């Protein structure tokens, strides 16, 4: 993931302090009390990483079987694979079967809306591809988590009516988080207030993207009592910094849980995905220790080739 990437030499100068909660967050959690059983999902953006062979995938695992192995280690995935083309129902059924056969059956896929809808059509006259997309992902059944709609860097606040109209077109019971990227959504208070208020009224979530070079996207606005965080780490050379950032998120999430946060979706990215399982494992351990998430640790492969 290259979004928000900065040069290695600049990382030390980035202020990774998490901003104060936004106004919409205080409204969303105003009357909240701790949920009895909050849900936690931690995962990556893709499963097809050859670098994970002999790390979390057995050495001779074929690429066609990577998903079979992935679902043994994680309880969710931010499904970017369906962004590049609208998937057919048979492919979704195939992926679902792999989750059924190899996971604890609590696994969920969080599909990204296809770019035909978000970046080519730009949400206009997108009913046909949207219907095709929704029909296909519905085949996930119990394994379907929330979908996320990523808007392009050039999707500006002027298109707020288009976004609102599109969200109203979607099924009311479809869980959706929206990722905003254009700076205008965050820098101008009027735009910020309007878009997050609209999402709250439509019961749609707002993605928080934590990347080094785009601190404005760490907007800290909760429009529903759920969060969808895309955390972009900087690789093994900056592991201490990334771990400290995870620690800060644990503190903030704990505050939100105490106020009524119900679900946490936390997806790990890195510009070089080789060490993402290590970052994910640290995240899982900290969530379990401080938030009571009870997510199984990742089983890494030893030098003898056995999982531990």
From TrEMBL:
Q: Which SUPFAM superfamilies match?
A: TM1631-like
Q: Which Pfam families match?
A: DUF72
- Tell me the PANTHER family matching this sequence: UNCHARACTERIZED PROTEIN YECE (PTHR30348), UPF0759 PROTEIN YECE (PTHR30348:SF9)
Q: What's the name of the protein?
A: DUF72 domain-containing protein
């Amino acid at each position: 993931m290259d979004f928000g990437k900065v040069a290695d030499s600049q990382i030390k100068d980035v202020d990774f302090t998490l901003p104060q909660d936004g106004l919409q967050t205080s409204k969303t959690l105003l009357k909240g009390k701790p949920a009895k059983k909050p849900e936690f999902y931690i995962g990556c953006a893709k499963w097809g990483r050859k670098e994970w062979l002999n790390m979390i995938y057995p050495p001779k695992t074929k690429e066609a079987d990577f998903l079979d192995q992935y679902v043994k280690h994680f309880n969710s995935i931010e499904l970017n694979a369906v962004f590049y083309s609208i998937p057919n129902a048979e492919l979704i059924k195939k992926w679902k079967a792999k989750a059924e056969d190899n996971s604890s059956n609590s696994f969920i896929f969080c599909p990204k809306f296809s770019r035909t809808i978000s970046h080519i059509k730009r949400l206009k006259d997108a009913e046909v591809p949207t219907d095709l997309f929704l029909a296909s992902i519905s085949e996930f059944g119990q394994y379907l988590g929330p979908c996320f709609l990523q808007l392009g860097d050039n999707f500006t606040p002027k298109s707020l009516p288009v976004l609102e109209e599109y969200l109203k077109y979607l099924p009311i019971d479809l869980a959706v988080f929206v990722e905003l990227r254009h700076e205008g959504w965050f820098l101008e208070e009027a735009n910020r207030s309007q878009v997050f208020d609209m999402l709250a009224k439509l019961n749609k979530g707002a993605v928080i993207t934590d990347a080094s070079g785009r601190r404005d996207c760490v907007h800290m606005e909760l429009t529903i009592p759920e969060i969808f965080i895309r955390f972009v780490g900087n690789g093994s050379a900056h592991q201490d910094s990334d771990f400290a950032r995870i620690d800060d998120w644990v503190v903030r999430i704990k505050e939100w849980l105490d106020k009524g946060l119900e679900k946490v979706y936390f997806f790990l990215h890195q510009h070089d995905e080789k060490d993402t399982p290590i970052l994910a494992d640290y995240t899982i351990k900290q969530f379990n220790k401080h938030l009571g998430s009870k997510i199984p640790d990742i089983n890494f492969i030893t030098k003898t080739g056995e999982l531990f």
